[in-house]
Amino acid sequence: MQDLIDILKEEGIEVPEEKKDGLRQKHSKNYKAVAEFERKVNSLTDQLTTANATITDLKSKTTDVDALNQRIKDYEKADQDRKDAEDKAKKTQQLKTRFDALKGDRTYLNEGTESWMFSEFQKAVADQSNASKSDGEIYENITKDKNIFTPKNERFKNPSAGNSHHQTSDEAYLAEYYKNNPFFKK
């Protein structure tokens, strides 16, 4: 870099000796050399390039973080749903235990009838108008005047599954079956 005083001499300007140091100090405070300026610009350009690369990298990682946060939320929701389902199943099982004790020694006609009566019992227990009633009163109200139990004295007769006579033809079977019937014509 060429000195300011030398540049001024080349241009025909003479600076007195006592003012040269002050002029150099003021010039160095306010003006930079082109080479120094270019070095600083190159350094800042490198820093900017590095910063932009870092920002791009962080943005890609931010989307990964967002995806992970969403997965965490999904897992938390699934866990809460599972807990809710377990609580509901426990409450249903407790109500089922209360319901089963009410039928006593009676037997329902079938499983469908029992399921229907249990759902009616659930609705009745949840109804605020039945809050002051006992389980037995609620059960009697929903089962009265309904033919839902098997009669106590009736025995179940299992129907036959087919022809037990092992006849070779329908005519032979009918002849054997109606042999004592005077109106049957052979």
Describe the structure.
- The chain is mostly helical and 186 residues long.
- The mean pLDDT is 83.
For the secondary structure, the number of strands is 0
SSE ordering: HHHHHH
Strand content range:
under 5%
Which whole number gives the mean pLDDT?
A: 83
CA radius of gyration? 51 Å
Number of helices: 6
List the helices and strands and how they pair.
Layout: H1 4-10, H2 17-30, H3 34-102, H4 111-126, H5 135-143, H6 170-177
List keywords for this structure.
rod-shaped, single chain, 6 helices, 186 residues, 0% strand, mainly alpha
Summarize the structure.
By secondary structure, the protein is mostly helical. It has helices at 4-10, 17-30, 34-102, 111-126, 135-143, 170-177. It contains six helices and no strands.
